[in-house]
Structure formats: structure tokens, C-alpha cells
Amino acid sequence: MLVSLLNDVRALGPKGAIVDVPEGYARSFLFPEHLAVLATKDVVAADKALDDRPRETKTEREERELAAEIDGLEIVRSVKEEKGIPALAIEKEDVKQGLKELGFKVPLQCISMKPLKEFGTFEVPVLFPSGFESQLSVIIEAA
Fold it and tell me: What is the 8-class DSSP label of residue 57?
């Protein structure tokens, strides 16, 4: 009898697995304990559809993990003041360098910003090619 597991069952498999078990075992243990349901054609088709979906690549996994790690980070840049404004604008390269100093390697093309020409705190999005996104806070202060 084919059943779909509703929870992890050590002897059978993980939650969502479709396994073949003796009918008596299913009716006397798995069904009463709400550990499994009868695997109908719809359940088997849904399971097959899940198997056919594209898997996350190594690059996508690395970008997802990096996006999670850098989300919410603050990068502080000190700039000389000239007449109440920064003498130099903060650009993508400066943000990349700040991330590098914190131990993160982010491609320059992922940093989405215009040059920052004022003192203050700015939100800078980091957009990865695989679709993951993070927000950084760039703080520009007078040196």
C-alpha cells in the first residue's frame, strides 16, 4: 500500500515521502497516529511534480546565504568635510570596500546605488543575479 508520510518516520523516511508499506501496518499504526495518508493518484502526481522542479544551484545557494548574512549591515564611511558637505562622494566601490573590510565579497554590479553626496544614513539595496536582495545601511560621517 502506498502512503504519503505526514511526519518524519525513522524506519520509513522523511515527511512528504511516498513509501510502500504493508496494509496492516498502515491501517493499525500509521493512519491512527496521523503519520501518513493513503497516497492517491493526486498525491503521487504532486510528489512527481516536486521531483521535477529545478533544484537550487550552488551559485544560487551561495547568493542566498550571502544575502541573508549582509542584510541589515551598517557600513560607516568617514569623509572630509568641505563647506558642510562631503569633499568626496561615496560610490559603489566604497561600499564594496566596506563589505570587504567586514569579510564579505560582493560583486560591484550587485550594489545598486547612485553616488551619495551628503552626510547621513542611506539605505542601499544589493541585488543578486539569482533574485535575492539585501539592504545595507551606509552611514556617511565627517572625518
Answer: P
Q: Are residues 75 and 114 in the same domain?
A: yes
Radius of gyration of the chain (CA): 26
Residue 116 CA to residue 124 CA, distance in Å, equals 10
| Angle at CA of residue 111, ends 105 and 112, nearest 5° | 175
Looking at residue 116, what DSSP letter applies? B
Strand-pair category, 133-142 with 120-127: antiparallel
Q: Strand 120-127 to strand 85-86: parallel, antiparallel, or no bridges (unpaired)?
A: unpaired
Domain hosting residue 48, numbered range: 2-52
Are 36 and 5 a contacting pair, CB within 8 Å? yes
> pLDDT tens across 113-143, in order?
999 999 999 999 999 998 899 999 999 999 8
- Tell me the whole-structure pTM to 2 decimals: 0.61
